[in-house]
From TrEMBL:
<keyword id="KW-0234">DNA repair</keyword>
<keyword id="KW-0227">DNA damage</keyword>
<dbReference type="GO" id="GO:0006285">
    <property type="term" value="P:base-excision repair, AP site formation"/>
</dbReference>
<dbReference type="GO" id="GO:0004844">
    <property type="term" value="F:uracil DNA N-glycosylase activity"/>
</dbReference>
<dbReference type="InterPro" id="IPR005122">
    <property type="entry name" value="Uracil-DNA_glycosylase-like"/>
</dbReference>
<dbReference type="InterPro" id="IPR036895">
    <property type="entry name" value="Uracil-DNA_glycosylase-like_sf"/>
</dbReference>
<dbReference type="Pfam" id="PF03167">
    <property type="entry name" value="UDG"/>
</dbReference>
<keyword id="KW-0378">Hydrolase</keyword>
<dbReference type="InterPro" id="IPR015637">
    <property type="entry name" value="MUG/TDG"/>
</dbReference>
<dbReference type="GO" id="GO:0008263">
    <property type="term" value="F:pyrimidine-specific mismatch base pair DNA N-glycosylase activity"/>
</dbReference>
<feature type="domain" description="Uracil-DNA glycosylase-like">
    <location>
        <begin position="1"/>
        <end position="160"/>
    </location>
</feature>
<protein>
    <submittedName>
        <fullName>DNA glycosylase</fullName>
    </submittedName>
</protein>
Length: 172
């Protein structure tokens, strides 16, 4: 679910089996992406995965580093991450979002060979697209609560002045 010129393109690691079955990103029960997106102020209400197309109206999109669906991200090979990173870089260069938000620091490190990357803004850019690494919202990521993830997502929201301009007139 992407389009040209998005304000923020969120990028998951790879589709879960539930996402592959439903065609909806972050569809697995227990994944906290949708609640965190709302808690951080990106959406006016808690959206369901089946409503993902509505994100485009907010200047937001979703893609993945690796296209292959798995039960767990640790089933992916190093080669899949590297190839996924190459393809993602091409996609971002073509679509030109203002921000690429990679959801999962481990996936970002593996896809782009940046072993020291931390959650937050990155030095790397793709053309004029800036990069931000966010915590992985999977229910398996116990290091982050929904509230602490929402704080990090909100840091990105606040750093994206174009997004604030687009949504400033909306009453939520």
């Amino acid at each position: 679910m992407v389009a040209d010129g998005l304000d923020i393109l969120f990028c998951g690691i790879n589709p879960s089996l539930m996402t592959a079955a439903t065609g909806h990103h972050f569809a697995r029960p227990g994944n906290r992406f949708w609640p965190v997106l709302h808690l951080s102020g990106f959406t006016p209400r808690l959206m369901k995965p089946a409503e993902q197309r509505e994100l485009l109206s907010y200047g937001l999109g979703i893609t993945n580093v690796v296209a292959r669906a798995t039960a767990r991200a640790d089933e992916l090979s190093a080669e899949e991450y590297v190839e996924g990173g190459r393809l993602l870089a091409e996609k971002v260069t073509r679509l030109r979002p203002r921000w690429l938000a990679v959801v999962g620091v481990t996936a970002y490190r593996a896809a782009f060979g940046d072993r020291t990357a931390q959650v937050g803004p990155q030095e790397r850019t793709f053309g004029n697209t800036r990069v931000w690494v966010l915590p992985n919202p999977s229910g398996l990521n116990a290091h982050w609560t929904a509230a602490t993830m929402a704080e990090e997502f909100a840091r990105l929201r606040d750093a994206a002045p174009a997004w604030r301009r687009v949504t400033a007139g909306r009453r939520w």
